[in-house]
Design goal:
alpha/beta; Arc Repressor Mutant, subunit A; two-stranded antiparallel ribbon
Length: 119
């Protein structure tokens, strides 16, 4: 099985970004990874906080874990980890396994962020 990758980008014109990525994928006719786009840095940071990134890192390193075990290893409250995990599942960064645990299916997550001076 090929390793899965995720590229997170910040582009206000998400439709143009989607069209470009789709065109590249069809030209190459092979797996090019998956993409997640945010329209602004504020949207990105509101969804992917430091504590949520720590959960992503834990699951990348350990593999499948239950929410309770993830909270224990993160040394955080189970209820808060459950909420953060649900948000990460909704974004597609975490997936639920057949046994009910959580996994981060991506071996590589790349954040593509450009800050430019306004014209």
């Amino acid at each position: 099985m090929e390793k899965r990758t995720l590229t997170i980008s910040l582009q206000p014109d998400w439709q143009a970004a989607f069209r470009t990525a789709t065109k590249k994928a069809f030209q190459r006719q092979r797996y090019m990874g998956e993409a997640l786009n945010f329209e602004s840095p504020a949207a990105f940071f509101s969804q992917l906080s430091e504590k949520r990134w720590a959960l992503v890192r834990l699951l990348q390193e350990t593999g499948e874990l239950s929410v309770r075990e993830l909270a224990r290893r993160a040394q955080r409250d189970v209820k808060r980890v459950h909420g953060d995990s649900q948000a990460l599942v909704a974004l597609g960064i975490f997936e639920k396994s057949a046994s009910g645990g959580l996994i981060c299916p991506y071996s590589d997550i790349h954040v593509d962020m450009h800050l430019q001076r306004a014209a």
